[in-house]
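This week, study the protein below.
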Amino acid sequence: MRDGEKTTSRKEKRMAYKLQIVDNNLKVNANARYENMSKFKKPAIIAKSPTGDIVKEKRMVNGKVISPGEETRQWCDENDKIYAKSELTFWFEDEQVEENQQTKVFEITGYQPLANYTDHYVIPTYYEIFPDNNGMKKDFDRERAVASNLFQLRKLWEYLDQNQVVARAEFCTSSRGFVASDAYLRAVKFDGNKWGIEIGVFKEEKIFQHLNEGMPKEVKLAEKPSTRKKIKMV
């Protein structure tokens, strides 16, 4: 399979992308692929008019519906002069910045406690990791490549599992935007000796503002006598 080629499951097609996972300290170097495993889909809600006709929300300008191809987006200055994106530079405050590039190498920068994955960051998107066949043509070579990459992934998985940590690295899933995202690589295991690796992408840091400290003391509140009669059947 080539980079970005679709892989087919029994239920749906997903996009699988190449990713090299590297940790020089652990001497891990695995060629893998990742695919988004989220199955959430918004329910298909249909709007209908009082007569039962299907109604759709459409973009309009001055009361006229915009037809496909009529609307375009261009980079313009305050005088409406048009520029190609290649002519532009991008800035954050007084510093020039560059657009993200899709991550091809997940180079681990460090390990953090597993609790960070659940308690410190909101992680809305996760990807499953599986070994790549290195693009080999022959079945024998493909099997050897998958086995070699699987061994490397297992070595990393054992370190994560035994130490109860997650591996952190920069991880951008597309070549757009200017805010690079980080992700955690986490070991997962299930009954029946099944194991795997997932990558969870950060959305934002969790900020807790009402944390408590120590064990609270129980306070018993005096109950006010009720003047109303309780009805009990038994």
